[in-house]
Amino acid sequence: MNKKGRKLWGLGILLFIVLIVLAACNDNKEVNQSENGESVEDDIVKVKVYKSHLGKGTIPNSDDAHVQYIAEKTGVEYELITTPAGSDPAEQLNYMIASDELPDILRPIGGVEQTLITQGGALALDDLLPEYAPNVWKNIPEEAWDVVRSASEDGKIYYIPKVFLVPERAPLIRQDWLDAVDLEMPKTVEEYKEILIAFRDEDPNGNGEKDELPTSGREFGKWMDHLFAMYGVAMWEGNPEWDIYDGQINYAGTSENMKAAIAFIRELYEEKLLDNETFLNKGEVWTAKINTNLVGSWYHLPANLHDRYEAMKAGAPDAYVVGMPLPKVDGFKGFVTQKSMGEAEWMIPLASEDKAVAALKLLDFFYADENEEFVRFGIEGAQHKMEDGKKVLIPATDETPIALGMRNLTTEEDMEKRIEETFPEDQQTMVKDIFSVSTQDARRIAGDGLPSTVYDGFPDIQSHKLFQEYLTKIVIGQWPIEKFDEFVERWKASGGDTVTERVQEWYDKVN
Question: What is the DSSP string of 107-151?
Fold first, then answer.
């Protein structure tokens, strides 16, 4: 090799070494990002946020404009994770706990919050909240924090509670169906049954077919709480709650009110006034029946009515939904169950303590008043569009990224704004009127905020499995109503009396 060639060869070797060093530096930078969970370049911390219940859409990634806006404002990247399709959320969370692969902040379900608290796996937030989540701390009422403290033996705050200061659920009925059968809003349970008979027989949806379902519910007897509410039964999405019966706090599932309600529901089922597929209806099937103008009376969330109402109008342009005041039943004082505070909404696992500050900063963003408009409307072109100078939400689809959220605090003022800003003008009066009606019938139950620790050692009582079995078999006529008394005895013998004592102790403590 000549002198010139040796020189070029030497330069090539030097260049090769420089490239290796640069690559190594880049590799180290990527390792640092991965190990520390934050970017060396822009100092953004990734926080894994677990939710089990999501609406339509895809999981947004780091490039999503919604994710990037929040990261810019907080220094935290919101990494949304959820339950795999087809899996049970409670089982999935318990698997995460067992495998020590928990997210940085999670929305608990199925009593998982108490599992973490009792096993020492939850981070106490008393000192962290005022400093790193001041908006969460000040906006949630002190009464709600007191309920949270009552859920742990040491009286510490281990989770952020859901606070809903307006009635969340309501009995709903199709006003256009009432008009079609020429009947007024029912005042008594007898008048309500007359209406259901007319819905069954007089073709109020006008399609010429006998396909109307006067009222309907879902599997396990869920989402037909209006039928129990008339009899003064404290129910929450089909599960009996705890309230005052005979002067003491007791499980509504074993009350005489419940026995009377089940007898009435059995009667409706026998006469095909209650959808005979109720105990088979999955959520999407039940929703589809309502949306396609097959159901006349049901129970759900007025604040979520928009998309359903639009679907109804596609097949019935004159569709109109109103709140139904609870019909009176002789001998019973009906009410719509209201749970306003104390349910676990967010908690941070102790294993994620190093991300706690970032997780609370992220949460606080959604509770800050100055971010209210962004939280509601998101990014233009993605979550909203401009029409006549106003922001209008774009309906979600299965292909669009899910809008990120964490706030679950609702006051009357919040709901008023939500209706005015997210519902079309032609729907606003309708939804406000529904809330007005349900508010008159709603009452907070004595067991609002009851911690799931009262069920420790009695998982079947906590899951309401025994109640669901007896409810189903009695309503469909497989068992007589007299079997209800057997259920009460079995419930008490299987731990109900012990649980009742614990509930009484908790009730005395918070009151």
Answer: ---TTHHHHHHHTT-B---TTHHHHH-HHHHHHS-HHHHHHHHTT
